[in-house]
Amino acid sequence: MCPPALIPYKPKNPKTRLSSLLSAEEREQFAAAMLEDVKAAVKDAMCSPVLVCTELFDSDDVQVTITDADLNGSLNAILPQSVGPTLIIMADLPLADTASVRRVIHTDKDVAIVPGRGGGTNAIFLKEPSRFRVDYYGASFLKHKKIAEDAGLSVDVVDSFRLHTDIDEPWDLVELLIHGTGKSRAYLEELGFVLSTDKGRVGVERKR
Amino acid sequence: MCPPALIPYKPKNPKTRLSSLLSAEEREQFAAAMLEDVKAAVKDAMCSPVLVCTELFDSDDVQVTITDADLNGSLNAILPQSVGPTLIIMADLPLADTASVRRVIHTDKDVAIVPGRGGGTNAIFLKEPSRFRVDYYGASFLKHKKIAEDAGLSVDVVDSFRLHTDIDEPWDLVELLIHGTGKSRAYLEELGFVLSTDKGRVGVERKR
C-alpha cells in the first residue's frame, strides 16, 4: 500500500501567531522545515506526499496541486476523484513520525481521524475518499466524526500526541524543542531558541 | 498482572489555575471527578489504584497513603520498597482510558514514560521501581528519560494524546468537553460549560 498523503500547505505568510517570535521570512522557513518533517514521516510510512497549495509553489521532490479554492473547497474537489485509500495530513505537525503515521493508515476502520489541539483535525485517513467530504475550521474533529458516521463509515480516533500537536502558538515550540528530532527543531535551535524554566513552568527563549 | 497505580492527589485547593472559571469548592469537586475518571481507567486496565496524598483523605474504595513529604519525596520513599511493576499516574488526566493505560503497562521496555504538555510527565511505568527515582517539576520528561537511561533502563515513550492532556488551564477544558466521556466531563456540563467558537477558534463558556 502506497496511498497519497495530501498535505495542504501555505508557503506565503504562514504561522502568523508566531509573529511575536519569528520574522516573516523566518516563519516561511520554519513552515518549510515543518513540511519537510511531515514529508519525511509520511514517506517513511510508505505514503506518497502531494502538496495542496493555494499559491504557486515549486517542489523538486513531490507532486504539487495548485488550487484557487480554500482548504475545504480544494480537498473536496480532490476527494470525489480519488479512487484508493487517501491520507490528509496537516503540514504543521513536526512531531509526526513513522510509527504514528503507520497507526493512522493501518486502521481497521473505514476512517481514521487524529484530533488536533482545541477541537481541530490534524489527519484523516479514508479508505474510500469519495464517500467523505472535509469540513475544517472550528471544532472540525466533531464535524468530521459526524460526517463519517452519517455516511455509514466506521471511525477510529487515533490516540497520538505526536500527531495531536500542531504548532501554532509560541508555547507550542516547547513541544518541538522537547520531542522534535527533525529539520524544524534544528531550524529553531539554529535561530537560538532554547528551553527556559520559570517557576517550574517550561517555556522557550531566544538566546540571540 | 495487577500492578499498583500510584496516584498523587491533592484534595485541598487543587487546580488554582482554573480559579477564573471555578470556585474553590467547584475546583475540589472537579479534581475529585477527574480522579474518579483516572481510577476507572486504571482499574479497567487491571491496575490497583493507591492514592498518595499529602493531606488526610478518606476513600471508600481505594488504598490511601498519607505522607508529609512533597511529590518527589513521597514517591521516592515508596519506590525503593516496591517489589513488582508499578505505575505512577497523575490525577488530572480525565481523558485516560483503558486502551491508553494498557499501552503503558504492556510496554516491552523497562520503563514507559508518557510526556505531559509543556515538558511534564503524566505517567511512568516501572518494571523494577527500586531502580528508579522521580524528579517532577520543570522539564521532568527529559529528567525522567535521563534518570532511566543513567540507570541502564530501556525507555519507551508512549505516544498518547489522551494521557498527554493534563487539565490545568481554562483552555484545557476544551479537550475535556470534546474528548471526555466520564465523570469530570459530566460535572463540567452540570455546571453549564459548553463549547464556544469565536473566529474559528474553539473555547469554553459557562452558560449559567
Describe, in plain words, how this protein is organized in 3D.
Two copies of one chain form a homodimer. The first copy, chain A, is an alpha/beta fold and 208 residues long. Chain A is 33% helix and 22% strand. Chain A has a seven-stranded mixed beta sheet with strand order 3-2-1-4-6-5-7. The first copy, chain A, starts with a strand and ends with a strand. The relative contact order of chain A is 0.16. The mean pLDDT of chain A is 95. Chains A and B meet through helix 5 and helix 6 of A and helix 5 and helix 6 of B.
The gist of it:
The structure is a homodimer of 208-residue chains. The first copy, chain A, is an alpha/beta fold and 208 residues long. Chain A is built from seven helices and nine strands.
Biggest interface goes to: A-B, 29 and 29 residues
Strand content of chain A: 15-25%
Query: What structural class do helix, strand and pairing data of chain A support?
Result: alpha/beta
How do the helices and strands follow one another from N- to C-terminus of chain A? Answer: EHEEHEHEEHEHHHEE
Mean pLDDT of chain A equals 95
Key words describing this protein structure:
homodimer, 208 residues, alpha/beta, seven-stranded mixed beta sheet, 7 helices, globular
Topology:
Two copies of one chain form a homodimer.
Chain A: E1 4-9, H1 24-44, E2 48-53, E3 63-66, H2 71-78, E4 86-89, H3 98-105, E5 111-115, E6 121-126, H4 140-150, E7 155-157, H5 161-164, H6 172-179, H7 183-190, E8 193-198, E9 201-206
Parallel strand pairs in A: 1-2, 1-4, 2-3, 5-7
Antiparallel strand pairs in A: 4-6, 5-6, 8-9
